[in-house]
């Protein structure tokens, strides 16, 4: 017996395997880890690439492309509260690029285009056309959702403004043509005639050139301009100006008026 124990001790010291080693080292089995169900649900909810219609809690729906769970690429969005539809380009959840925004007619329920053009940061930005009614629309440049830059506005009454816009109003240099072909050409500010300008009364064959403030001519000169061809000429022609320096007198009047504003 002593010799057997001594042999076992020698084998243990030599590092050799033995039956005793196998029985004294049990194998531990760890349980397989299982991710919570919401991990899988969240993975499936992450949207990327082209997807079918996705509905929001409030009833809005979107059909199109996604990237990192955001609308990105080509897609169509419909808002349930207004029935409005936007179809076009998206970038990281916002309307960016070219697209069309439409609304249903309150009576016929047929969709009518409201705006077609370029977008940036979810607003009308760049060149586009907006329809205010069947006979009234604007085509030109936009910035932050407002008419800004160069543009042409067709009004319901048949008049047209073409020129510069600032903060959704005529501002800068522009031409306003009325339905009867009379027109104003000159400076604008806050949507009104402000500064130097000319008003052509083509129906009577006259021209007023002067200085305007909030649509009111403050000082200037009136002369006949194509009176012979005018459809409704004045009864008598305007007498010739006998001033030696009419332009100097006008400049002095304008300077005097501007000084009163300061």
TrEMBL record:
Keywords: Cytoplasmic vesicle, Repeat. It is found in: Cytoplasmic vesicle, Secretory vesicle, Acrosome. It comes from the Eukaryota. GO terms for cellular component: acrosomal vesicle. SMART domains: MORN. SUPFAM superfamilies: Histone H3 K4-specific methyltransferase SET7/9 N-terminal domain. The keyword Repeat applies. Pfam families: MORN. Assembles a suppression complex (suppresome) by tethering SIRT1 and MDM2 to regulate composite modifications of p53/TP53. Confers both deacetylation-mediated functional inactivation, by SIRT1, and ubiquitination-dependent degradation, by MDM2, of p53/TP53, promoting a proliferative and cell survival behaviors. May play a role in the regulation of spermatogenesis. This is MORN repeat-containing protein 3. It comes from Eublepharis macularius (Leopard gecko).
């Amino acid at each position: 017996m002593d010799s057997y124990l001594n042999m076992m001790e020698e084998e243990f010291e030599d590092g050799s395997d033995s039956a005793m080693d196998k029985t004294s080292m049990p194998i531990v089995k760890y349980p397989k880890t299982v991710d919570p169900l919401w991990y899988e649900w969240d993975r499936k909810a992450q949207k990327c690439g082209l997807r079918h219609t996705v509905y929001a809690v409030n009833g809005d729906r979107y059909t199109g492309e996604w990237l990192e769970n955001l609308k990105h690429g080509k897609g169509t969005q419909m808002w349930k509260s207004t029935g409005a539809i936007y179809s076009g380009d998206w970038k990281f959840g916002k309307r960016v690029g070219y697209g069309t925004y439409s609304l249903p007619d309150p009576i016929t329920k047929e969709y009518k285009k409201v705006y077609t053009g370029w977008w940036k940061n979810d607003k009308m930005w760049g060149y586009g056309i907006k329809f205010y009614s069947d006979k009234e629309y604007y085509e030109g440049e936009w910035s932050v959702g407002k008419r800004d830059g160069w543009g042409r506005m067709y009004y319901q009454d048949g008049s047209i403004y073409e020129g510069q816009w600032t903060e959704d109003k005529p501002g800068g240099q522009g031409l306003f043509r009325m339905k009867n072909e009379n027109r104003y050409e000159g400076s604008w500010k806050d949507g009104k005639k402000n500064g130097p300008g000319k008003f052509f009364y083509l129906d009577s064959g006259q021209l007023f050139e002067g200085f305007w403030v909030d649509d009111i001519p403050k000082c200037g000169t009136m002369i006949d301009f194509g009176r012979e061809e005018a459809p409704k000429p004045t009864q008598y022609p305007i007498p010739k100006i006998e001033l030696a320096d009419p332009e100097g007198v006008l400049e002095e009047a304008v300077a005097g008026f501007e000084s009163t504003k300061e």
